[in-house]
What we know:
Radius of gyration: 16 Å
Strand content: 5-15%
Number of strands: 2
Number of domains: 2
Shape: extended
Largest sheet: 2 strands, parallel
Strand order of the largest sheet: 1-2
Low-confidence stretches: none
Mean pLDDT: 80
Amino acid sequence: MNTKAEVEKLFKEFYNMVENQFQTKISILRSDNGTKFLNLTFEWVFLTQHGIQHQSIYKYTPQQNDIAKRKNCHLLEVSRALILSMNLSKYL
């Protein structure tokens, strides 16, 4: 993503990819309370049209940030384990 204006386009592409590859729908979009990424057209038209609930979290809350950090660490550990088990190069 080069600019913040690309968020709507990229999310729509991500939504289509999830729907096509995994045959499932996104039900909740969680973001911080900043409005810099979401505009009214995107939020009220696209999200409500597709039945996606927008939940905004409080900014700078360590409790919620810790949950996200733990999930990211878990994903990295799993991906590293898969790379090692497949005997791929370490640079990957």
